[in-house]
Amino acid sequence: MDKLKVVVDSISRQGEGNLAITLMPVQPLNLPEWQAGAHINIYLPNHLTRQYSLTGSPTQREHYVICVKKEQLSRGGSQYIHENLRVGQYIEISPPCNQFSLKAAEQYLLIAAGIGITPILAMAEQLEAQGKFFELYYCVKTPLHLAFIHRWRQGFKFGKIHVLYSSLGESLREQHPPSLQQPQPNTRLYFCGPHSFMQDYQHYALELGWQAEQIHLEAFHPIQVPTSPFDTATNTGFQIKLQRSGQIFHVPEHQSIAHVLLKNRVNIPLSCEMGMCGACLTRVVAGEVDHRDSVQSDSEKNSSEQYIALCCSRAKSPVLELDL
Predict the structure, then answer these.
(1) pLDDT tens sequence across 196-206
(2) What is the 3-state secondary structure (H, E, C) of 150-211?
(3) What gap in Å lies between CA 95 and CA 14, rounded to an integer?
(4) Which pLDDT score, from 0 to 100, does residue 69 have?
(5) What does DSSP say about strands 289-290 and 314-315: parallel, antiparallel, or unpaired?
(6) Interatomic CA distance for residues 291 and 307, integer angstroms
(7) Do the first three CATH levels of 107-217 and 238-322 match, i.e. the same topology?
(8) What mean pLDDT is predicted for residues 227-242?
(9) Cβ-count burial 12-39 (b if 16+ within 10 Å, e if not)
(10) CATH number for region 107-217
(11) Which of 120, 242, 278, 280 could anchor a disulfide with 295, C-beta 3.0 to 4.6 Å?
(12) What is the C-alpha to C-alpha distance for residues 202 and 219, in angstroms, rounded to an integer?
């Protein structure tokens, strides 16, 4: 994937624990176009790759904006951005990729919890520019946690905004939006937030009679598969052979292929480490794959040319030969 060199133009606090990062192109050119729901890969100087949703208005191409929450259990990405990233620093990013795009509808119900507001705000901006009606519910813990407060104060011509605070008894988990109660055939639902929140809302909407194709989620976690990638009761060890170097490594039942490769100083791209982004997909030269990712379609997993997600998938055969 092509990389774009950008400079950190500004860093601003957006509620408790959130930082908004504005990225400008190094060359005096517009950045690639994007639509609401898109994300970019950030290639951090600490050799980590992380995905962050673009936020703000998609009509703005002079810069990109992401908003990053510092996770308590950070695997290095949000921690680096909050503690080390500085204005004026040069970094590399990928062009935008969109797996959470707005589909055609007459009306939209947008529901966000916490940092899930980042793609949802972009959707509100895009719908506003298109003159399409939407209703947006945004729930945070307290007023101190509210991101993009100035934008909410401006309001929207075509959107109705509801900002809720769970500390004041306004939790979306306990009080579902009235407009969700009656399914509408020409309305689409977009949910973004913690995995359990989205799962609860998806199940609730289906029980109310909304159709599955009307419901769209931003996947912060991979789709659950019957077997955990590291369930030692069902996993077995296997070998991987690197086609280019001829090196052979053993992958034990409790470790991923990615872990073994990195431990042996084989440089591979990693991002989500959950099998949902595709950053570590690698061509399989020989052997049978036990696919456990959620990024590839069934047809791709069954095609003659096989790719494996090094972070989570395993082998059905004793040896996998990889294009590395």
Answers:
(1) 888 899 999 99
(2) HHHHHCCCCEEEEEEEHHHCCCCCCCCCHHHCCCCCCEEEEEECCHHHHHHHHHHHHHHCCC
(3) 24
(4) 93
(5) antiparallel
(6) 9
(7) no
(8) 71
(9) eebbebbbbbbbebeeeeebeebebbbb
(10) 3.40.50.80
(11) 278
(12) 12
Query: 4-98 domain in CATH 2.40.30.10?
Result: yes
User: What percentage of the chain carries pLDDT values higher than 90?
Assistant: 74
pTM, 2 dp: 0.76
CA distance 242 to 284: 10
> What pLDDT sits at residue 295?
77
Per residue in 218-230, pLDDT tens?
A: 755 444 444 444 4
* CATH number of the domain located at residue range(s) 238-322 in this protein: 3.10.20.30
Give the C-alpha separation, 184 to 179, whole Å: 9
Q: Which residues contact 116 (CB under 8 A, 6 or more apart)?
A: 191, 192, 193, 194, 197, 218, 220
Please check whether residue 135 is in contact with residue 177, taking contact to mean a CB–CB distance below 8 angstroms: yes
Domain ranges of the chain: 4-98, 107-217, 238-322
